[in-house]
Write a structure and sequence with these properties.
By secondary structure, this protein is an alpha+beta fold. 64% of the residues lie in helices and 9% in strands. A four-stranded antiparallel β-sheet has the order 2-3-1-4.
């Protein structure tokens, strides 16, 4: 049986008054989410080959060759659609991406795709023969398969948020569930917008990174909610503002240590790795920062908003 602690009004709820800044940071969060939605609507999501279909050719040169030379050599092949060249790994290793031509039937599309791959491969091996090119892999995703992957990927994010809403409502109370889901939605949308802003592609590994961030952010939020519930039993006569401030202050050190450790590790991967690993690490760095922020200024204070709207009983 829990014991109630009777404290004086002068007793401190912690070092920082987080609830006092709720209006300021709540406005900032709403503005960031709106700007993210507007930017994503106008700019659109830069889908990778996994989602929009196309072909990737990974080539390694045994001698120094500049990426601009490869781009210039492929400029005249307009029938292949948008062609992109990106550095990969260390040294003279690159990824060549192109959409290819669509045919009237699946067989015609496959024939044109095989011809396009052979054309690009011949172009690279002949024009850069002096640089000793080595074709390491060729990956192709059809537009129908890409569309299915995109749809299933975003459905996975939606179902993830829905299940979290149900889980938090059952695990704690319905008054906690909206805060948890808003927190995760906030983190995912802002992370995706920043990712697109810097010109990176969204593919299956990046979507997996966003799902991982949702899990990490949920864990941080659950820990804060647990502490709020424990503090409610200890200080039964105190207001919700006191309870939330006390709980967040108690968990602040834990939040900074765990989030900081993951952030530093991901930052090292972003700086020293290349290709997809670097992109995943970049997404995680953004998500960890906003995850720690939202667990303090989005998830927990939502309880106060629900009380103010008379959606939950107020503490006296």
């Amino acid at each position: 049986m829990s014991k109630a602690y009777h404290v004086t009004e002068s007793e401190s709820f912690g070092r920082f008054d987080f609830v006092k800044s709720l209006g300021l940071f709540g406005g900032i969060s709403i503005l960031l989410v709106i700007l993210s939605f507007v930017y994503l609507s106008v700019k659109g999501i830069n889908y990778g080959i996994d989602f929009k279909g196309g072909t990737e050719i990974q080539v390694k040169f045994n001698k120094d060759v500049h990426i601009d030379e490869i781009r210039k050599s492929l400029e005249g092949m307009h029938h292949l659609g948008e062609i992109g060249v990106q550095g990969f790994g260390e040294g003279n290793e690159y990824i060549v991406r192109f959409q290819g031509e669509a045919g009237a039937t699946d067989k015609e599309t496959n024939d044109k795709l095989n011809a396009s791959i052979a054309e690009v491969r011949t172009k690279i091996t002949t024009q850069f023969a002096a640089f000793e090119p080595d074709i390491r892999r060729i990956d192709t995703v059809g537009p129908q398969v890409g569309g299915e992957l995109k749809r299933n990927g975003f459905l996975a994010v939606f179902y993830c948020l829905l299940i979290i809403l149900i889980y938090v409502a059952v695990r704690f109370d319905y008054k906690y569930a909206p805060g948890a889901v808003l927190c995760l939605f906030h983190d995912a949308v802002i992370t995706l917008a920043i990712f697109i802003l810097v010109g990176k592609e969204v593919n299956v590994p990046i979507l997996a990174a966003i799902l991982s961030l949702i899990g990490f952010s949920l864990n941080d939020t659950i820990v804060v909610f647990d502490r709020i519930r424990e503090t409610e039993h200890l200080y039964k006569e105190k207001t919700s503002k006191f309870i939330i401030n006390r709980a967040i202050n108690d968990m602040l050190g834990r939040t900074l240590i765990t989030s900081g450790t993951v952030f530093v590790s991901s930052l090292c991967l972003f700086i020293f790795a290349n290709g997809v690993v670097s992109d995943i690490a970049f997404a995680i760095c953004i998500g960890i920062f906003f995850g720690a922020y939202s667990s303090i200024y989005v998830a927990a204070p939502t309880i106060l908003i629900m009380e103010k709207l008379n959606l939950t009983p107020k503490r006296t």
